Amino acid sequence: MINFEEELKKFHPSLEVEDAEEAIYNQDLTDMADLMVRLVKEKNTAEEESSDEDS
């Protein structure tokens, strides 16, 4: 019969899993709020540039 407590003591996660976890957590992910802020800033910049050209 398998002794699960003993098997759990022997368990060591593979390096591949740890590397993948680190890469996922360290990745800079852009969410919808970031996209909306960027779009508003770009729109405001474009409006300022067009109003400067009109003057």
Account of the protein in words:
By secondary structure, the chain is an all-alpha fold. It has one domain (13-54). 76% of the residues lie in helices and 0% in strands. The chain contains three helices and no strands. The chain starts with a helix and ends with a helix. The model has no long low-confidence stretch (mean pLDDT 85).
Map the helices and strands:
Blueprint: H1 4-10, H2 15-26, H3 32-54
Protein traits:
mainly alpha; 55 residues; 3 helices
Whole-number radius of gyration?
26 Å
Largest sheet: none
Structural class: mainly alpha
Number of helices: 3
- Give the rounded overall mean pLDDT: 85
Q: How many strand elements? A: 0
Terminal CA distance reads 86 Å
Helical proportion, percent range: over 70%
Count of domain modules: 1
Order of helices and strands: HHH
Stretches with pLDDT under 50, minimum 5 residues = none
Describe the structure concisely:
The protein is an all-alpha fold.
